[in-house]
Write a structure and sequence with these properties.
By secondary structure, this protein is α/β, with parallel strands linked by helices. It has helices at residues 2-13, 31-40, 51-54, 60-77, 95-111, 116-151, 167-177, 210-219, 231-245, 259-265, 268-273, 291-301; strands spanning 15-17, 23-25, 82-87, 157-161, 182-187, 204-207, 221-226, 254-257, 286-288. It is globular. The termini are far apart.
């Protein structure tokens, strides 16, 4: 029985697992071949160079830490201490692009005026042209804020966006056109989203985890301005409102631009009426119609002095 037990022990000792976690029988190797196989084995890779290891589910916490730490370190090195965060739809076109598409739709409809597909294309082109107004407002807002920061000697104060197209592009573009820096926090999506061309390259980041990206939106925020948008914009607006309402984030100007859009979309007075928010919660934000009004809300909050924007 002892011999049998010893044989079993020897047999089991010669079993290992391959890279897929499956059992693999060992074989006798020549010394040189054994060295080569060792060097090629995934287990021999340096941990920080082993992408399979770093992407393993049990290292998610480490990846979260890395994704927080890299942008944090770079923004500190770049001297970014305060931001105005701009949210809004990625689908809103610039005025020039919307104008071009509208002209194309008009020409196509003239050729076949009874074609229902061309009629629908015309309707969408008109809608997109109307919505492009908000691209231009976001662009002007970022330009005005950037000029104020420059005049106050605040090169540490920058526009921050989600780094994509639409309203995000407009805000980065407005800062770029004034010669000021801006931050873009891009996110990896199922359909690849590239950063817009107006972000300061040294302040262009890419995230995998929405949670860490949201954290960076909030950490340096001294104001949040939201233009018309969809689910992503609403998510960010209510996140900031909740953080400020609960005292988890500092009080800051929260501005919703586009009175008709926001009042039709959300009945805030109804929330007060049914008791799900308090009347004073309505004081957490302002609804305005223009870039100039949004800038005024921020300036009034800080007493008209951009130098105080990182001290509240």
């Amino acid at each position: 029985m002892a011999t049998k037990s010893g044989n079993n022990h020897k047999k089991h000792g010669r079993e290992t697992k391959n890279g897929n976690g499956e059992k693999a029988n060992l074989e006798k190797l020549e010394p040189r071949e054994g060295i080569d196989r060792c060097i090629q084995s995934p287990s021999y890779r340096l941990a920080f160079e082993d992408m399979d290891y770093l992407h393993a589910p049990f290292l998610r916490g480490t990846r979260l830490l890395l994704e927080y730490n890299k942008p944090e370190r770079i923004m500190r090195e770049q001297g970014v201490r305060a931001t105005v965060v701009v949210f809004g739809s990625a689908r809103i076109l610039s005025r020039e692009e919307a104008q071009r598409r509208l002209q194309e739709a008009e020409k196509a409809l003239q050729i076949a005026p009874d074609d229902p597909h061309r009629q629908e294309a015309m309707r969408k082109a008109k809608r997109d042209f109307e919505m492009s107004h908000w691209y231009e407002e976001a662009r002007r807002f970022a330009a005005i804020i950037s000029r104020h920061a420059e005049e106050a000697g605040r090169d540490d104060f920058v526009i921050m966006t989600g780094g994509g197209p639409g309203i995000m592009e407009a805000a980065n573009r407005g800062a770029w056109e004034t010669g000021m820096r801006s931050v873009g926090l891009n996110i990896t999506l199922e359909h690849e989203q590239h950063p817009n061309p107006y972000i300061t390259p040294e302040l262009c980041f890419r995230f995998h985890y929405f949670a860490i990206r949201k954290m960076h939106f909030t950490l340096r925020a001294r104001a949040m301005v939201a233009f018309p948008g969809g689910f992503g914009t609403l998510d960010e607006v209510f996140k900031i409102l909740t953080l400020v309402q609960t005292g988890k984030a500092r009080r800051m100007p929260i501005v919703l631009v586009g009175r008709d859009f926001w009042t039709r979309l959300i009945d805030f007075d109804f929330l007060v009426e049914v008791g799900t928010i308090s009347p004073e919660d309505l004081d957490l934000f302002e609804i305005v119609d223009s870039a100039e009004e949004a800038v005024k809300v921020i300036r009034d909050f800080y007493g008209g002095n951009p130098r105080k924007w990182n001290k509240r």
